[in-house]
Inverse folding.
């Protein structure tokens, strides 16, 4: 079962931790709290971390890299799971968001990776 971002506040207060791929996404975007997360497609509150290249039943950690992780709302996540064209569209939007984030970091003198 997937851990939704909204549930993270409960887990923080109870001393639990979020999934590793969600940590990677939050670190890459410099998000501190779940409310920072927004859907790549529709800009509503994101509750899921979508893998562009599906982990499948093997659950490979090799697919938990920043560019492969896409914050999505529940509806967009469901669509991306069944519609290859939509999945690719949100992947492209995700890469554009990453590029904008990196440009902003560079503009502010932050050259960290």
């Amino acid at each position: 079962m997937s851990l939704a971002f909204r549930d993270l506040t409960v887990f923080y207060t109870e001393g639990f931790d979020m999934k590793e791929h969600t940590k990677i996404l939050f670190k890459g975007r410099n998000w501190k709290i779940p409310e920072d997360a927004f859907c790549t497609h529709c800009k509503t509150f994101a509750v899921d971390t979508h893998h562009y290249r599906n982990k499948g039943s093997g659950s490979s950690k090799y697919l938990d890299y920043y560019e492969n992780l896409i914050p999505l709302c529940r509806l967009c996540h469901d669509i991306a799971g069944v519609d290859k064209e939509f999945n690719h569209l949100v992947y492209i939007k995700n890469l554009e968001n990453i590029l904008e984030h990196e440009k902003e970091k560079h503009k502010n003198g932050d050259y960290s990776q």
Observations:
- The beta strands are 48-51, 69-72.
- The chain is about 45% helix and 5% strand.
